[in-house]
Design goal:
Length: 335
């Protein structure tokens, strides 16, 4: 059995005291907040489209509102965060550029697919995220697969069997899945050292460039929305973009993209609930059963936080001690 020296055990205790589990709690809270905000995006977008707003025009207005708020907030609260080094802003901008393609594809898929079908397909996103993380060396356990399976099974029961499928619409959602999965893992792998507010600004800016470029290529069609449409677009910009992306990126720094991806079933459930409330739809018995499976999947994902803490507390081996020692030697001495 491996034994630790007294000095190593003392060092481990000191290092554990410096490790703040509250950061993970904050990460989960922000991830859940982002999930709630994102879940409102599709219903609000559908309501705006029903008012006659072109999807691309809606996205241009949405991201313009979000960028103005982001720049204004940073200018007042932390002007130094408006600038990051070349590597940081370039990676964030590229991540936004490619995910802008995904956003366009998803909202245009709503013109070919029912919102429920598009949302159901999008829940395959966690599988791709976890696969990308596994390529990088992160552990992929059977519990991850169980949680995803429960969530996807619940989604199927909530939405019910699909009828005729428009395969172009399916392809558009598939492109969305690839784009957002790449964005999530790029942020986790390469943008951890950067402030989440800066990351949010540059990623959203990249998405805006893609959307604006497509809008100009379409001929810069402009339709002056009525007040109901402006309300939905405003909510999309402030709540579903400005707040949601910042909360998601901050949460990623604390809990990782694999755990954030596990909340996709909950986001889908909430999207359906808001759609039912706003559009007058109702649950059937099978949909209630599916709801239970989705909630179970989400609860299992959140419980992993407590299990992770317990494993770390019990891992008092010399290897763990050396890990903390190397980490602290690379940090400035604040004592």
């Amino acid at each position: 059995m491996l034994k630790t020296r007294r000095s190593d055990r003392r060092f481990f205790r000191l290092s554990w005291q410096r490790f703040k589990p509250e950061g993970a709690n904050l990460g989960w809270a922000l991830a859940l907040g982002a999930t709630l905000a994102f879940s409102l995006s599709t219903p609000f977008a559908r309501l705006a489209i029903d008012q006659g707003v072109n999807p691309t025009t809606m996205l241009v207005l949405r991201f313009s509102i979000a960028i103005v708020l982001l720049v204004g907030t940073l200018q007042v609260t932390a002007p130094d965060k408006l600038r990051v080094n070349r590597s940081g802003w370039l990676i964030a901008l590229l991540a936004g550029l490619e995910n802008g393609i995904g956003v366009l594809c998803f909202f245009w898929s709503l013109t070919r697919l029912d919102a429920s079908i598009a949302t159901m397909i999008f829940t395959l996103n966690p599988l791709l995220v976890l696969g990308l993380l596994a390529l990088r060396g992160e552990k992929l356990t059977y519990r991850h697969l169980v949680r995803i399976s429960l969530g996807l099974s619940g989604i199927f029961l909530v939405l019910g069997p699909a009828g005729h499928i428009d395969w172009i619409g399916v392809l558009l959602v598939g492109i969305t899945i690839v784009c957002i999965s790449i964005e999530l893992v790029v942020i986790q792998w390469y943008l951890q050292p950067y402030d989440s507010r800066s990351v949010t600004l540059y990623v959203v800016s990249g998405m805006s460039i893609t959307v604006l470029g497509y809008w100009l290529w379409q001929g810069a069609e402009w339709y002056n929305p009525g007040w109901p449409a402006w309300l939905y677009i405003g909510l999309l910009g402030v709540l579903c973009t400005y707040f949601a992306w910042w909360a998601m990126f901050t949460g990623l720094r604390h809990i990782g993209s694999g755990q954030v991806a596990m909340l996709v079933p909950l986001e889908t459930l909430l999207t359906i609930i808001w759609s039912f409330m706003l559009l007058g739809e109702r649950f059937t018995l099978w949909q209630y059963i599916g709801t239970g499976l989705i909630l179970l999947s989400t609860i299992l994902a959140i419980r992993r936080l407590g299990q992770g803490r317990k494993r770390l507390l019990l891992a008092g081996t010399p290897a763990i001690v050396r890990f903390f020692r190397r980490r602290d030697q690379n940090e400035p001495n604040n004592q």
